[in-house]
Structures are given as C-alpha cells and as structure tokens.
C-alpha cells in the first residue's frame, strides 16, 4: 500500500501479510493529522493451549488485540505490553453453557460469578419454553451490563401465554398458532436462536405435536434451531424421543434434547439403546444432538412427578416415589408458601406431618399452589449420565441458576475434576471440545468456541490438577477450585476466586 501526500512531500509504504487493516487506518490518520489510538493488546504466555477442536494441548503464547484473538505461537511481548504468565496451565476457549437459567440472578449479581467461577463465558437462555423477548433482554443488558455473553431461544410456552391470553391448558386453535408463528418470526429476526419447548410442563404439555411442528417449520424458514425439554424424561421417554426426531425430520432443522436423562428407575441402564436410536435418526438425515449435565439429580417443580397431571392421586404419588425419584434423597430447594420445607427431603417433610412419602408429595404440590416450589430430585443412574456425556454429539451444559442446585456453580468444573481427572471417562481435550467447539457448532456460533485468529477472546485459564467443583446441596454457591483467570471479549472478569469490575458481556444474536 502506497500513500503519497504531494503537498507535504510525504510518502508512506506499508507492507502487510495479514488480513488486519488496522495499521492502514492508523497510517492514514497520522498523515492527515487526525487523532489516533493504538489498539489495546495483551499477551498470555507460557500456556498449554487447548483450542476447542479436540486436538491435544500445545505449548504456546496467545495475543489478544482489543476483543479478539490475534495470534498464537512463540510470540514475544511488544514494548510495554501487559503480559500474563500462564505458568504452564491450560488455556482454553471460554465455556459455552447451552442450557442456562443464570440470567435470573443478573440483577442481583451482574458479575455472574456463578458462571465465571466454573469457566463459563457465554450462556444460552430462553430454555424449557420460557423466554424474555429479545427486545426486553437487550434492554435489560443495556441497563445492567454483565460479565458474560448472553444468547437466547424463544420459548414456546411464552408464545402460548401471549397468543392464547393465558388459557394454555389446552391445544391452540389455528388462529392462535398463526399468532405464535408471527411472534416467533419477529423474535428470531431480532436475534433469537430459534424455538425452545418445555413439553413436560403444563404450559406446553397440552400442545399438539402438529402445533410444535408448525412452529418448528417457521423456525427452519428463518434459519433457526430447536431445543427441547422433551414431553417426558421418564414414563413416556421413548415416545418423547420419537416426537423430537419427527419434529426434526418434518421441519428440517437441527434439534437438540435438553439435559438428556433417564429419570425412570426401571429404565436405568438403557442409555446405550437410546443413543443407538439417535444415531439411526442422524443416519437418516436428522441433525439431532443433546446436552448433558454431570449430576444424578435434576431440579424442577415437583409437579413433574405427576406425568398424568393428577396431582391429588395417591396411587400416582406412590408410583412417583417408587419409580421417578427417591423421597429420602430429594430436597426442596424453594418453597414460597412455607420456608420451613426448604432444605428438607420429602421424607423429612413427611415425618414433620406424620404421613407417608406419597402423601407428603401431594401436600407439597397442593400447598405450593401458584407461588411455586422447586425440588432437586434424585432419580438418575450415574452410568447413564456418563454414557450420555460420552456420546459424540452431546455437549456439556449446566441447566443451572444462581443457587438452589449445585450445578449452578459447579457443572463444568465437576466434569473436569470428577469425570476427566478422577474417572478418566474421556481425555481432557475431548471434554473441552464438548464445552466449547462442539457447543458452538450446536448453537450456530461462528466466531466463538475456538482459539483461532479473529475469534472473540473468550478464554479460561485453569489448572487441570486441581480444577473441580465444591458446590453441594447444602452449600450450592461454593466456588470452584482451579479456575485461575477468565476473559470475556478480551477483558479479565474473574481471577483467584474473585470477580473483577469489568462487565464486557454482549448479546449474541442469531447469525
């Protein structure tokens, strides 16, 4: 590039072998006597770099320029450039949580330390059929900046609530489905990733399969994706899996099973067969994937323990206590109507009232009323959880929030400590891939999830020898060990178990 200024008798020749045009812009500003600013850079040196592709770690340095990754390799610091000594630890892309409820805590804690303490730099909200409209979410983030990036799906139940004016315990009419399709289209145009459903919950349970397929087709036409808390994770698990496969096949869009699990005791040990069915669907052209969290306890409303929605039926409650959860190990984490229940198991609440576990379950659902309740239900086999995590097309998620269930603070570090270092169910580079590159692929992100030139500088530095979760049911907000530093869009947001003042998180729109 040659820039000749004849009037001032100045010529500048710029030789550049990169795709970075920043230098050319600065040169023009200098020659024209205009103010200019050199880009902000920082170097992270002496790290074992895991790039998020599943490749083994390599010794490297990494340079950040503004909010992007500029280069990796044996780089030398510029004069006066800030340098972070990685001390031989692992540097990976920031973890992407494909199923999160952490946005619920942003107003109270915009540092999002529940996320950053476990290495999460991006969360995906709008899960289980419930969402905030994209405009409202953007306004919320503009008013209260946060430390992590946020993307969202559009919730099916939220669409139903609006189009059906709250009368959602039935199938929608054709006109109501058309109204939902229009609302969905508008939200995707504004940046939603696509459609999410929570078909096990009452707001979505009464929808027909055709209603969901119709909305999924609208999503596909917009280039969006579909994610689902499927209609049943226990009694009707097999038919629910067939339903999401059919949705993917008829609507011709990527579909993802949320927090894949087997929550029916008599079906424990059948994960291999379910995965074989998903492989068949993939071979037939359905792009079906899943996300998984590393716990044998779920968290939801106790109403899901009544698949027939017969909440006063003692036989159904007894069946739930035998097959769907362990009353002696399942803990009420939130109960607005009676805080004395919080932190107690169903069996302990039964003892309080001198009644059986099934009757206590009925009592809990009845007394919760519209104020709601949350339960951490023990109802899964660890062998099934491990098999689901190991599947080639499953990525890691938390399904967590700021407290309640320990997954909100420790899901990702639990995988790295318990399942990678201790149990060795997969190599470290594979686990990182399932937290970064694979997740980005499942979400359609093209500039996050990998350590590569011009990707956003979302990064986590951690010690694989000490990383692990410390959050428990009794102390669900205990911070993880081994996460040393976290960067979001090039800014340090977490260091030595403390949040920094930086709030560089951004809204990530559908591409």
Descriptive notes:
- By secondary structure, the protein is of the alpha/beta class.
- 32% of the residues lie in helices and 21% in strands.
- It is built from 16 helices and 23 strands.
- Helix 7 (209-221) packs parallel to helix 8, helix 11 (346-352) packs across helix 12 (357-368) and helix 14 (407-422) runs antiparallel to helix 15 (428-435).
- The model has no long low-confidence stretch (mean pLDDT 95).
Kindly report how far apart the N and C termini lie.
Answer: 33 Å
Pick out the low-confidence regions: none
The number of distinct helices, counting runs of at least 4 residues, comes to: 16
User: Helix share of residues?
Assistant: 25-40%
pLDDT averaged over residues: 95
**Assembly status:** single chain
Q: Based on DSSP secondary structure assignment, what is the total number of beta strands?
A: 23
The biggest sheet, with number of strands, parallel, antiparallel or mixed sense and barrel status, is: 9 strands, mixed
* Structural class label: alpha/beta
Instruction: Report the C-alpha radius of gyration, rounded.
Output: 25 Å
Q: What's the shape? A: globular
Give the amount of beta strand, in percent: 15-25%
For the structure shown, list the relevant keywords.
single chain; 511 residues; 9-stranded mixed beta sheet; globular
Map the helices and strands.
Elements: E1 2-5, E2 10-13, H1 22-31, E3 41-49, E4 58-65, E5 68-73, E6 83-85, E7 90-93, E8 95-97, H2 113-116, E9 120-125, H3 134-143, E10 149-152, E11 154-155, H4 156-163, H5 174-189, E12 194-198, H6 202-205, H7 209-221, E13 225-229, H8 237-251, E14 255-257, H9 271-283, E15 288-292, E16 297-300, H10 314-324, E17 331-335, H11 346-352, H12 357-368, E18 373-378, H13 382-390, E19 394-396, H14 407-422, H15 428-435, H16 437-443, E20 459-462, E21 483-488, E22 491-495, E23 498-499
Parallel strand pairs: 3-6, 3-7, 8-9, 9-10, 11-12, 12-13, 13-14, 14-15, 15-19
Antiparallel strand pairs: 1-2, 3-4, 4-5, 7-20, 16-18, 17-18, 20-21, 21-22, 22-23
């Amino acid at each position: 590039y040659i820039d000749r200024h004849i009037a001032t008798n100045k010529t500048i020749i710029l030789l550049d072998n990169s795709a970075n045009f920043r230098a050319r812009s600065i040169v023009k500003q200098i020659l024209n006597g205009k103010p200019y600013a050199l880009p902000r850079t920082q170097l992270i040196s002496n790290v074992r770099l895991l790039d998020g592709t599943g490749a083994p770690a390599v010794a490297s340095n990494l340079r950040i320029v503004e909010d992007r990754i500029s280069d990796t390799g044996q780089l030398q610091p510029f004069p006066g450039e800030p340098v972070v000594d990685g001390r031989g630890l692992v540097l990976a892309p920031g973890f992407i949580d494909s199923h999160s409820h952490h946005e619920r805590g942003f107003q109270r804690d915009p540092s999002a330390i529940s996320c950053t303490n476990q290495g999460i730099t991006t969360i995906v909200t709008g899960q289980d059929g419930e969402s905030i409209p994209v405009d409202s979410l953007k306004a919320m983030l503009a008013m209260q900046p946060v430390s992590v990036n946020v993307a969202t799906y559009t919730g099916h139940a939220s669409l139903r609530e609006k189009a059906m004016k709250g009368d959602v315990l039935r199938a929608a009419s054709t006109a109501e489905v058309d109204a939902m399709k229009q609302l969905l289209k508008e939200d995707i145009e504004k940046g939603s990733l696509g459609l999410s459903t929570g078909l096990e919950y009452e707001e979505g349970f009464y929808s027909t399969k055709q209603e969901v397929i119709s909305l999924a087709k609208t999503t596909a036409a917009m280039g969006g994706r579909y994610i689902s808390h499927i209609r049943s994770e226990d009694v009707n698990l097999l038919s629910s899996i067939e339903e999401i496969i059919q949705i993917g096949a008829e609507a011709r869009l990527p579909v993802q099973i949320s927090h894949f699990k087997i929550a029916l005791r008599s079906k424990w040990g059948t994960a291999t067969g379910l995965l074989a069915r998903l492989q068949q669907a993939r071979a037939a052209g359905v792009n079906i994937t899943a996300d998984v969290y590393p716990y044998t306890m779920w968290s939801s409303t106790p109403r899901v323990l009544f698949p027939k929605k017969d909440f006063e039926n003692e036989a159904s409650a007894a069946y739930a206590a035998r097959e769907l959860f362990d009353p002696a190990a399942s803990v009420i984490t939130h109960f607005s109507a009676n805080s004395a229940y919080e932190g107690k198991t169903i069996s302990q609440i039964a003892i309080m009232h001198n009644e059986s576990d099934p009757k206590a379950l009925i009592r809990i659902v009845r007394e919760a009323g519209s104020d709601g309740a949350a339960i951490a239900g023990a109802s899964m086999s660890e062998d099934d959880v491990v098999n689901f995590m190991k599947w080639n097309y499953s990525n890691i998620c938390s399904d967590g929030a700021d407290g309640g269930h320990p997954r909100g603070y420790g899901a990702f570090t639990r995988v790295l400590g318990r399942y990678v270092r201790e149990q060795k169910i997969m190599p470290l580079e594979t686990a990182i891939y399932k937290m970064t590159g694979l997740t980005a692929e499942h979400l359609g992100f093209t500039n996050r999830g990998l350590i590569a030139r011009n990707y956003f500088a979302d990064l986590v530095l951690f010690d694989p020898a000490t990383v692990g979760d410390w959050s428990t049911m009794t102390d669900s907000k205990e911070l993880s060990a081994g996460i040393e530093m976290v960067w979001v869009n090039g800014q340090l947001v977490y260091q030595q178990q403390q949040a920094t003042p930086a709030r560089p998180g951004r809204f990530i729109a559908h591409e």
